[in-house]
Design a protein that fits this description.
Layout lengths: L1 H10 L11 E6 L7 H14 L4 E6 L1 H4 L6 H18 L7 E4 L5 H10 L4 H5 L2 H7 L8 H15 L5 E4 L4 H17 L9 E4 L33 H9 L12 H5 L2 H13 L4 H7 L5 H27 L2 H30 L5
Parallel strand pairs: 1-2, 2-3, 4-5
Helix pairs in contact: 4-14, 5-8, 5-15, 8-9, 10-14, 12-13, 12-14
Bound molecules: tryptophan.
Tryptophan (TRP) binds next to strand 1, helix 8 and strand 4.
Length: about 350
């Protein structure tokens, strides 16, 4: 059967696109501005991965509107998130940087996946349950089908690896289920089984006001997070005012587990200085918070201000950012279009 299929496809003029070796795809929703948690938890890893992979990084604006977004804010956030990736060291000459809605292959493959994924699979998605809340009847169909679009994002490039936080693991499993179901339904070897690259727990950055909550853009208090748009004075102020406890620091892990604010600040120090946490725990064992915070301010300002300053500069240059997104979309479409055509042929869609 396989051979027969290949013959049919060859007569259509489409050669199956070979599976890439090391191709990364990842996405970020352009909603609100990015903060230190996003930087240390995700973006910094994206920068590093450029050395070993062909990387495709996407502002997923179509995912963003699964819950209503103010249109002007969505546009602004798409530029802003792009600016923060560029400022952090994502190199648009090496990696593809674009916004999802500019490459129509994502929507096209997502529809096909809507017809592959089963209701039962989507009903198990914990992120949908969390985001839809109590009033599920009122959630958008898009929010429900969100994981299918995410699978399309990844598989429309036959990506081999996807760097994500632990919260996205279930969506990656679904992506593999969809790839497998498609391959087996049509008796082809079209899609790879994409591997997640899960970021380490160590880079989980917590709120500066509450060490038990993740640093988040939806937290009302600005003092809870360091934004990638903050200048040196704001960075310093937020660290100086960060919540602590009355005791000196300690290297005892058992004790730190009971002192989430101390643990979080030490973790941020370790991440910013690229050192193992254990080493930083030892270094500040017995130190007063006042001294530690001075050191942390110095480190954070040195590490973060070049990024936040470049970010400010890029945000004032929207035509440059827009041109990066346009070029990126063009390159992305070059990779995605033949794969979508291959899929259309497999499904039996008549094409021009
Ligand atoms: N769902 C991801 C998140 O909320 C964003 C995303 C969309 C994504 N498409 C993707 C991540 C594809 C990785 C690959 O973080």
């Amino acid at each position: 059967v396989l051979e027969q299929k290949e013959n049919q496809m060859a007569s259509n003029g489409i050669q199956p696109t070979p599976h890439p070796k090391n191709r990364i795809f990842s996405g970020v929703q352009p909603t609100g501005n990015l903060h230190l948690g996003n930087y240390l938890g995700a973006i910094r890893n994206w920068v590093t991965l450029q050395a070993d992979y062909e990387c495709i990084y996407c502002m997923v604006d179509m995912h963003a509107i699964t819950t209503f977004q103010n249109p002007a804010e969505l546009t602004a956030s798409t530029r802003e998130v792009t600016a923060s990736l560029l400022a952090s060291g994502i190199d648009p000459k090496h990696s593809i940087v674009f916004n999802q809605s500019q490459v129509h292959a994502h929507a096209e493959l997502a529809w096909i996946f809507n017809c592959v994924a089963r209701m039962g699979w989507l009903n198990r998605m914990t992120q949908f349950k969390e985001k839809a809340g109590k009033n599920r009847e009122n959630a958008s169909v898009g929010l429900y089908a969100y994981p299918n679009l995410m699978a399309a994002d990844i598989l429309v490039y036959k990506a081999t690896h996807v760097p994500v936080g632990a919260d996205q693991k279930q969506h990656l499993e679904l992506t593999r289920d969809i790839a497998q179901a498609f391959n087996s339904a049509y008796e082809v070897d079209c899609f790879p089984l994409t591997e997640p690259l899960i970021f380490g727990e160590g880079t989980r950055v917590m709120s500066l006001r509450d060490g038990n909550k993740k640093m988040s853009k939806s937290e009302p208090s600005e003092m809870s997070r360091i934004n990638l748009t903050d200048g040196p004075d704001e960075i310093a102020k937020k660290i100086r005012k960060a919540k602590t406890d009355p005791k000196p620091l300690t290297a005892s892990i058992e004790e730190l587990d009971e002192r989430p604010e101390a643990k979080n600040l030490l973790g941020i120090f370790a991440a910013l200085s690229n050192a193992p946490v254990a080493e930083i725990y030892q270094r500040f064992d017995g130190a007063e918070f006042s001294q530690f915070k001075k050191d942390l301010v110095d480190l954070a300002v040195v590490e973060m201000s070049p990024i936040t300053m470049e970010m400010q500069r890029l945000m004032d240059d929207t035509s440059y950012v827009d041109s990066i997104l346009r070029d990126g979309a063009e390159k992305a479409a070059e990779l995605a279009t033949p794969i979508v055509k291959e899929v259309q042929d497999i499904v039996g869609f008549l094409r021009p």
